[in-house]
Each structure stands twice: as C-alpha cells, then as structure tokens.
From TrEMBL:
Belongs to the NAD(P)-dependent epimerase/dehydratase family. Dihydroflavonol-4-reductase subfamily. Keywords: Oxidoreductase. It holds the Pfam family Epimerase. GO terms for molecular function: oxidoreductase activity, acting on the CH-OH group of donors, NAD or NADP as acceptor. Residues 20-148 form the NAD-dependent epimerase/dehydratase domain. This is NAD-dependent epimerase/dehydratase domain-containing protein. Gene3D superfamilies: NAD(P)-binding Rossmann-like Domain.
Length: 350
C-alpha cells in the first residue's frame, strides 16, 4: 500500500505546486509528511532547530525530487517572539509536527505551557497570513486513551484520556510509578487548548488534528536521522534494550508513510474539524519479533515475555476516507512496515 503513487480522487483544494510548511522536519513522522507532500507534487518548507545538523534533509530531498522543491529553515526556539513570521510567509498549509514535551515529563503544567507558547504563536501567525488555507496539528492516540492489555475499550473521535490527566495530577501517586501518564496528559491538554483556540479565534483556515500511535516504517536517511520508534525494530533485531521493549504495552501502530499521507489529505482536500486516528492495526513487540523471525530465519533472536493483547476498538471511518482521497485503498501492514524499517537500517549499516 505505502508505495502506491498518490492520486487524488478529486482535485485538491490547495493546488499542486503550492508551498506547505512542515515543522520539525527532521523527525520520523515529519520527514515522511514532507516526503509524501513532495511526492504528491507540492513544495515544502521544513523547519528544524539546527539547520547545520540537518543539512542531510536537503540533500535527501534533492536526490528524490530535484532542486527547488524543498527549503530548510532554522527555528531554534518555537516560542520566540516573531519566530514564525518568516517560515509562515507565503505558505498555503501548515503541518505542525514539532513539539516540546519529552516522553518523561516531570511537570505537566510547565510542559503544556511551553508547548502552547509555540503553538499559539504559530496559529496566530497563520491566522494573520492570508495565504494559509489549512493547518494540521500533531496530537497522539494517547490523547484519547491509555492502552491497557486485555482490557476492552471503545474509542471514538469524542474520546479524551481524562484518566491520564487525573492520574498525572494525583500527588498521592509517586512520580516514578506514573510512567508516561504525564506525557499523555500533556497531549490531552495541548490538543484541547488548540481546539479551543480555533473555536475562539475563528481563523480562515481549516483545522484538523492527527493522532498517530506507534509509528514504524523505513527511515528516510538511516545514516543521519534519529530512528525514533522505527529504531526499536532494530533493538529487537540486535537483542538490545529488551527490558524497555518488554514494558511496552500492546497497542496500535501505523506505517510512517501512511501517516504522511494522512497529513497530505488532511491538508489539501478541504476537510475541516476532524480528529484523525493514525491507527492501522493492533501491535505488540512480540508480533514484530515473529515477523523478524520469518524475514531473517537464519538469525537467532531473544524472545520477549508475553504481555497480552490490545483490545481497543477504534470507531472512526475518517482515516481510511483520507487515504482513499489520495488514492490508497487501505493500510500498509505491520509486516511490510517492519520489513522496510529493518531493510532501511541494515542498508545504512552496510
């Protein structure tokens, strides 16, 4: 599925050749957002915190799409006054992927405040720039629910992870036992605040959020790019950090290229007010291990303990509708994502 050429079911509301801003363009998700936009026929301006360290992005996209299609700009402080005026100037759409919060958040309110400073600044700048027609915010599936093995739950676009917010704020619970619940709480509060901003400010652009779960797939430049969750496939391959992987509860996953295509469709097809789950199929690291064993039968792998199965039912037809809008009939399988993640990492190491 992931290698199906993008073909719009209807003429896009934002014309091909228009300029789209992608923040945090060096990350796993954002780099695939940029890649899919370029493949669709758009131009991309990507922001990074350090342009010199991320120069590989320009060479990667030039090799794929030629000169004058991708522009790299530095935004070292997402919340600095006036920092978005230059990057936003002349763009037709914005994919806001960069975030401030670390996975192990120590202070939820402080992390929310820091994230919102940058996001409100970006949103306000976008509102004042007449060229901007669409804005897509990156949230997280964890903003909707906390994955729990073997616990049935129904998730809809109206779901919010209030459980994480409550537990993260509970002073009677030790910080070390909260795990990533504070990070989940940040995602809830930030996404809600941005929806509130849109309702209050009534900007002239469409606004949608994408809530990806564990993202796996090929790394665009495995020699230079941080692998993020795709790199965990190689932890299994190499028998590294198995304690971390064993503690990773079963949940849902999505191919990085499918994630990129959700952004393309949400940006340019005119949909508005959608929360879009990036959840293709149920996933566990034991399933990933089974795939690696089939793909590399000559290699010995260390087994993981069984930590159950995800039983969340996600009720939304919006994600597949967006994929169909760009010519893709269904999700890329976990098996294909794992194969391609491993292949990209191994080719870089060769």
């Amino acid at each position: 599925m992931a290698n199906t050429p993008i073909k719009f079911a209807e003429p896009p509301k934002i014309p091909l050749g228009s300029l789209i801003l992608v923040t945090g363009a060096n990350g796993l998700i954002a780099s695939h957002v940029a890649d899919q936009l370029l493949a669709a026929g758009y131009r991309v301006r990507g922001t990074v915190r350090n342009k010199a360290r991320c120069a590989w992005l320009e060479s990667t996209f030039i090799s794929r799409y030629g000169e004058c299609r991708f522009e790299l700009v530095e935004v070292s402080d997402l919340a600095a006054p006036g920092v978005w005026e230059g990057p936003v100037r002349g763009v037709a759409g914005i994919a806001s992927v960069a975030g401030c919060a670390d996975l192990m958040v120590s202070d939820v309110d402080e992390a929310v405040e820091q994230d919102l400073k940058g996001l409100f600044s970006l949103l306000a700048t976008a509102k004042s720039e007449s060229s901007v027609k669409s804005f897509v915010l990156t949230s997280s599936s964890w903003a909707a629910w906390t994955p729990e093995p073997n616990v049935p739950i129904t998730v809809t676009v109206e779901s919010w992870n209030e459980k994480a917010v409550t537990l993260a704020a509970d002073v009677s619970v030790a910080r070390e036992t909260k795990g990533i619940l504070p990070f989940m709480a940040v995602k809830v509060k930030v996404e809600k605040a941005c929806w509130d901003w849109v309702a209050r400010e009534k900007p002239g652009f469409t606004f949608n959020t994408i809530l990806p779960d564990t993202t796996i797939g090929p790394i665009l430049d495995a020699r230079n790019q941080t692998a993020s969750t795709s790199g965990m496939v190689m932890w299994l391959y190499n028998g590294e950090h198995l304690d971390i992987l064993s503690g990773f509860v079963p949940q849902w996953c999505i191919d990085a290229r499918d994630t990129g295509r959700l952004y393309v469709a949400a940006l340019v097809t005119g949909v508005d007010g959608w929360r879009v789950f990036g959840c293709a199929e149920r996933f566990s690291w034991n399933r990933v291990l089974d795939i690696l064993k089939r793909v590399y039968p000559e290699k010995d792998f260390v087994d993981l303990s069984d930590n159950g199965d995800d039983q969340a039912e996600i009720l939304s037809d919006k994600p597949l509708a967006l994929l169909r809008a760009v010519g893709q009939d269904g999700w890329t399988s976990l098996e294909q994502s794992v194969k391609d993640a491993a292949a990209s990492a191994l080719s870089a190491a060769a």
